[in-house]
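Aim 2, interim progress. The first record below pairs a target sequence with its structure tokens.
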Amino acid sequence: VGDVKTEVAQHEMSLKVDFTLDGKPLRNSDQSSTDKSKQVRTILELDGDAVTKVKLAYEQKEKTSRSGEAEPATATLPVSGKSYTVTLKDGKLIVVGAAGEDVSKDEAAIVGNDCKSLGKPERFAQFLDGKSVKVGEKLAFTDEAVTELFGSGSEGMRVENVSMTLKSVATEQEQKCGVFETQLSLVKLQGGVETRVTLSGEVAASVETCAAVSVRVAGTLTANRSGDTPNGKMEMKGNGEIKMIQSVTSGKSADVPAQK
């Protein structure tokens, strides 16, 4: 209780999609987006190893989108510059403002999405805890541990072809860390569309806590669908790029009393 984590993230995505009917070009789309966030998370209550109550202060939360040849437009999300208290009670997340006031549905949805891990142990840290790993050694991480690293962006996706090899030991975010060379695929089938994200890069984990302190990965994105329509066979083929950068710095709050 009282641990403070400053989480900074930037996710970039671009996707071009071509639609064909019986093999002939029908239409296309070209879109891109960049999500940026910086939030300070203070642990207020624990149940064993699981966090059940936090204070979440958003210093930045914004999304920049572009469609076709239009100029990019940036929207500041309604939580930006605000603080919230989030409590897990009877399996449900309760979100209130800094002074305990009610919040809008939009705010509650955004905050709730950022706090889906409440009540759950840190799978990645648990997997590494107690393990002795040599440089060059490859670890068979569980799907849950790997998926946890990518937050809401990986929700509902299946992990495939995971490879994480200890590349070096280095200082990241002022902590001694093991740096893992990482490759994996995330696959999702929804509404007849198969989305596949293939990523490679590095993940750094604290030697002391085993928690991930930085994620730097990039790769490709494909989205495909085909099916029959009254007018013929429709096919959708999308190709794009994706980039994810996340970092966590840790500290201690002097304002939070010890949990009884």
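The second target in this work package is listed in the same format:
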Amino acid sequence: RAVFLPAYAVWPRAETLLVGHCFTFWLSIFGVARLAGGASRSGAEHRPYLALLGALAWVTTPAAFVFALNDCRPLQLGVPFLLWAVLGFIERRPWLFVVSALAALACRQEYGVAVAMLAVLPALQPERPATKWKWRAVSLALGLGWFAGYFLYIDQMFGPTSVARYFAVPSSFSRKGWADVLGGFVVTGGSLAVLTGGWCLLALRSPRYLLASLPLVTMIVQRNLTRLLPGDAEWHMVRYAAIPVALWTAGGAVALRR
């Protein structure tokens, strides 16, 4: 959000932050379009009609408008950068991946887990095993390194109890039985399915993207933030669904490309 400071210095109002938030979030349209339509630099692979279809489908997805209008939140601001990071990773484009991943990591610490989990995603083109493992190592090092660095920072600034509190939040895993835990996953999955619309059905053809979102879905269930739809008591916490929604949408867009 610091990038909005110059504009906020000129127009110090809440509306300035909201406009900046909406503008940044809607950059995600281009990420979804590129994931669905293929690489523009490759004429044989690029399908403009799929790019347009993906863009139109994204702007009509329930989650998109919820994230765009749900206050100015870093978790939601990172969505377009994560989509571009996915594109760079699966197309094996180093600069696109690194720059986009760093932009996403700058939004919030949870993106460290998301970037690390990109290691499970397959490349679009066949490649040598050595290349595959090199990309996985870079993704894991970048994501987990950032995540560990964040906790080292709060440990130095606020003490080890701050780190402990982050992981020792009221947890359904420790206070409830397995039936309630599974129920939390079912409710969360249902909320994410509603938020992503048709993208979740397409994502079933790209199951590794669903697998990549599992740690973030687990965080939602652990914090008992399972009811994320407008009208639910805690729906304003929908920002915690931003990363799973982005990964499910990316998986759906890649399935659409195929």
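Residues 91 and 124 are 6 Å apart (CA to CA). This observation will shape the mutagenesis plan for the next reporting period.
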